[in-house]
Amino acid sequence: MDGELAYSTWPALSPTPVVLVPLGSTEQHGPHLPFSTDTIIASAVAERVATDLTIRGHSVVVAPALQYGASGEHQNFPGTVSIGTEALTIVVIELVRSLSTWAGRIVLVNGHGGNLAALTASVSLLRGEGHTVAWAPCTVARGDAHAGITETSILLHLDAKLVDLASVVPGATTPMSALFGRLAVEGVRAVSPTGILGDPTGATATTGAALIAEMCDGVQRRILGESIDPRGCLRDPDRCTVPAPVATEDRA
Ligand SMILES: [Zn+2]
């Protein structure tokens, strides 16, 4: 790949590369995972996908991650920093307008489900302006929602010292579909005092390696498939085109 934009120089860039932009959040992830969990995962996925696409002959560069997202549902926990959907929408619009002056194709690699409303609004507007942009979620087929076994396992794989294993406890395991109404109105703390939606007990680095490989495969398939749904999301050619449930498709 052309590498990471942050550490490259302008003469080193290929003409009109594919640009991957990791989108994350700064929000609580229970008592055992760091605030940057979503950003760390989205960045790792983008970097691995960029490497694989480069092997296939594409010119790819990974832009610096956007560390702030729409995390209002986590605001009741100290440390959470959210810019909200309206501001995130504008940020994505201006990022893509600027990137479009030199990039070929732009893919927003999203690690946080709370960013979806902003992504849908911004990408549909941008595509209407003629920009070659879409987004892809970091998702697995049977993942849990937030700070559970999915994210905990992946962080154990990526950097085990980021996980406070002594603080791992089961969270709210009621399906997200049943929690979502109250969660949307009252926030995560009303349905999970620890901030965990899922159960991280039993998480392992080995599981995490398999999960992030699945995420990367999915994002790569979506990019190579080039089919975009009405939300501006790249479809996974290997999966149903009907949007999956929040708990699996769009992690919190
Ligand atoms: Zn997360």
From TrEMBL:
The keyword Ubl conjugation does not apply. The lineage of its organism: Bacteria, Bacillati, Actinomycetota, Actinomycetes, Micrococcales. Belongs to the creatininase superfamily. Pfam families: Creatininase. Its cofactor is Zn(2+). The keyword Nucleotide-binding does not apply. GO terms for molecular function: hydrolase activity, acting on carbon-nitrogen (but not peptide) bonds, in linear amides; metal ion binding. Keywords: Hydrolase, Metal-binding, Zinc. This is Creatinine amidohydrolase. It comes from Cryobacterium levicorallinum. GO terms for biological process: riboflavin biosynthetic process. InterPro entries: Creatininase-like_sf, Creatininase/forma_Hydrolase, MftE. SUPFAM superfamilies: Creatininase (SSF102215).
